[in-house]
Amino acid sequence: SSVLSDILDIARGTRVPPLGVPSAELTPYRRAPIREHEGGYYIRLNVRDVPGAFAAIATRMGAAGISLESVIQRPDLRVSEPGVTGTESRTVVLLTHSTMEQTVRDALQAIKGDGFIVGDPQMIRIEQL
Model-level pTM? Predict the structure, then answer.
């Protein structure tokens, strides 16, 4: 139907700007600072299988004011750190409620500094459509 509408506009000689407004009247694009993005986040961590590891992660998230919507730990997903013996870890997935990206990044940096995770944390923004 939109193709037919375009064909009819051409046949009538109607000139409609591509965005509905002449390009000279458009305001310049302003890129949003990504660290100020607010939304939910998917976070995947490889957590060392030692007592107190998850408590430390939850404490860091709580101290940063980040509310967790869901925590998933699959017992069959084990990861071993290459080149280091006795460092078995488990994959843990955290889903957060809406929060600021910089807050999440700061909390993940603190969690990494605690030494309970193997490798870098993985973070993906969750967009609500």
Answer: 0.70
